[in-house]
Amino acid sequence: MTRPNRRPLVIPALLAVLALPMFLIAQDAPRPPTTFLGLSLSSYLVSDKVFEEVYGGAGAMRGLVFTQRLVGAANFALDAALDFRSYAKTGASTLSQVEARLRIKPISLGLEGSLTRGIAILWMGLGLDLTSYAEESELQNTTGSTFGFHVAGGLALQPVRSFPLRIKLHLRWTKAGAMVNEIPVELGGPEYGLALLYGFRLF
Hints:
about 200 residues, mainly beta, Porin, two-stranded antiparallel ribbon, 10 strands
């Protein structure tokens, strides 16, 4: 009776033992964040000439920013982006000099594609906007909302790769046409600024 040859089983068993610590380390390694939430501050210019005459140049736009990873492969990623922003500025009518106050509040939903190189993340995006507006003065109050779109891009920096805090620089152009008192106006315009985001895994 011949004895079974167990040598073919030795090498696979040895490889399995050697690979076990690497497998455990991989299991314990933290997964990168896929969700980012933060605050933004930017300069916004309403491009309509009538509003520019009444309210002057650009004003501050503050917002809440949320992004969620949809697809990620190597250094490329596709995210869904949702943000709520608010703009308010006081001016005066060019004829009567009556004080007026303009409020614009866009809600934006879009897609952002990004490419990561070290601590730098280049990104571009586009999306749709629902923009509500209100103009208040002693003469008349006007409110309404309109749909529009935007294109955006910029650079995000994550100085410490192991700590998910990002500084996101952006340049955005918005198109938001509306009818105010039966007069066509453009509430969109150029915007540039930054956001401070913290990352975690929501899904």
